[in-house]
Amino acid sequence: MNEGMNRVNDEEGRKGGRNEEAPSMNEFLKIALEEARAGIEKDDGGPFGAVIVRNGVVISQAHNEVLRRNDPTAHAEILAIREASAILGRYDLSDCEIYSTSEPCPMCFAAIFWARIRRLVYGTTREDVAGIGFDDSLIYEVIRGEAEAEQLVLVNVDREGCREVLEEWERRPGRRVY
Amino acid sequence: MNEGMNRVNDEEGRKGGRNEEAPSMNEFLKIALEEARAGIEKDDGGPFGAVIVRNGVVISQAHNEVLRRNDPTAHAEILAIREASAILGRYDLSDCEIYSTSEPCPMCFAAIFWARIRRLVYGTTREDVAGIGFDDSLIYEVIRGEAEAEQLVLVNVDREGCREVLEEWERRPGRRVY
Question: Which of A83, A99, A100, B72 satisfies CB 3.0 to 4.6 Å to A60 for a cystine?
Fold first, then answer.
């Protein structure tokens, strides 16, 4: 994604031989691809799939359902994380890996971070995704200060008033930072 | 947030007089604060609230429920967006504004972007939020390449195999880019 991340290019590609036929693909990315294809067939949303794996076992798998659910947050990674958290009964997925057919958008990247997932394996890049019309790359550029978010105006007001609630929380015994 | 965003500092603060007592606060931020306080009382999650407004009317309001739901994506803004989308029956909230007690984390910022919301009003900054122990600021720094995501390893493999599904989607008649 960028220099600040522990990116390993083609680590498994080198091991497994990425130039072979599809059957040699990473087995979990194959499942994620099947999810993406199912989503295309059903017109559920964009062509993206994700799988969450723990100790070599698939915990959850999902595809993009933004259109079917009328939910702009229903990206494959978000749905897979929510399902895995529900199944495991915890928000901390630090013993899990996530496999995504495409490099996650900033929403999903941050969600992976909040879920404390330790390993993200992905196929196509944000540039590939931008090439078919999705704005992932633009949102990254906006966050990095390299592009304008022309449609979004940000207004910062009432900082002091809102800070009171942070202070109330800090004074609360037994508060849990997650 | 940064230079790439159309940030307006204290636009309403200047108009409304931000040094007055709490009743002069932005009315929607006050509702968001009440949500945040309800969340603290119930130990549902972090001290954050959000409200979505359309034509001056509150469509949805939510507080952070990461702990109650065991869902790392259950930030106030995400829940408010999901609820507003469900109520309005569409993923496009371009006629809505969002009010958040704190500057949204990258997950929520990108979700606001995907929902096509045009105006974001927030109270405390990412630095305030970092000051009470939440990693919003760090995730921004990681995305901007200013910090290491030490706990997360990224692996890019099978780009060509995964690109096939993007191409299948591109060939599909009637596909909807959202």
Answer: A83
Residue A13 pLDDT grade (very low, low, confident, very high; cuts 50, 70, 90): very low
> What is the pLDDT averaged over residues A115-131?
96
Strands (E), chain B: 6-9, 49-54, 57-63, 96-102, 119-124, 153-156
A36-40, A149-153, B60-64, B95-99: the lowest-pLDDT one: A149-153
Q: Each residue of A35-81: pLDDT tens digit?
A: 999 999 999 999 999 999 999 999 999 999 999 999 999 999 999 99
CA distances to A140, B6, B85, B108, B158 from A147, in Å: 9, 10, 27, 18, 29
Q: Give the pair of three-digit tokens for residue B176.
A: 């909807």
Q: How far is B147 from chain A (nearest CA, A)?
A: 5
Is A73's CB within 8 Å of B140's CB? no
Q: Which residue of B has its CA nearest to A174?
A: B43
Tokens of B123: 């109270």
pLDDT band of residue B129 (cuts 50, 70, 90) is: very high
**Residues of B whose CB is below 8 A from A63:** none
What is the residue whose two structure tokens read 């990674």?
A77
- Give A7→chain B minimum CA distance, Å: 5
Mean per-residue pLDDT over chain A, rounded: 90
Which residues is B54 bridged to in the sheet? B57, B96
Cα separation, A75 vs A72, whole angstroms = 8
Residue B77 annotated to the active site: yes
Residues in chain A with CB shorter than 8 Å from the CB of B22 are: 161
Strand-pair partners of B124: B102
A33 and B90: CB-CB below 8 Å? no
- What does pTM read for this prediction? 0.90
Q: How many helices (H) and strands (E) does chain B have?
A: 8, 6
